Give the backbone structure.
Amino acid sequence: MITPEAPLSPPRTHMDFIIHSSENLSEFIAMPLAQRRECLQYCTATLRQESMRYLPMEDFNTNPSHVTLQNMGDMGITTVAAIDLPRDTALYIVKGWVVPKPTVYTIQVHPAGHMIISGGAEFLAHGCDPNIRITTSPESVTVWTLRDIKKGEVLAFNYLTTEFCMSEPFECGCGSDTCYRRIAGFQMLSVAQKKELAPLITEAVLELWRR
């Protein structure tokens, strides 16, 4: 069970309450779609995983005009281009709950804070030869296309560019000539690899690298 600890900053929302645990699953499912999507920015990973057993996959996608969510078998649910996407298209601008420790649903937004992402951005794949990139501020995460992308392409960014030290490292099998193999965080890379990735790293990772 993955449960965020106390947030570094309170959730900013107009809703009367924010879902924090799986005890509210039935109430969450009964919400209107727009309210449920907003609530996803702050709910626990447990609630999110449980709700996906009962709700259509596209209910979790806030940008259906540009992307779609597909079950890719061993890859799980993955974000895919719904149309041809030109370079430098902003696919998501995500705001969410900032927590002190990373989970599989967070992106590091400053050295001591990790934002819980939603809207379909949480299903973006890893790629050592990415077609999207991430920019961050302490308040938001933005997803951009790195190049022209064809309809049906899996959308992938390099997780090493957004996480200084990952909570769940893994072995990459992307098959790219530039594959980094062990994906454990920017901190674990060689000096040469860090310099290679420097143009794509986020402000939070850059700040930690400079220390």
Summary: The chain has one domain: 22-210. The mean pLDDT is 86. The radius of gyration is 17 Å.
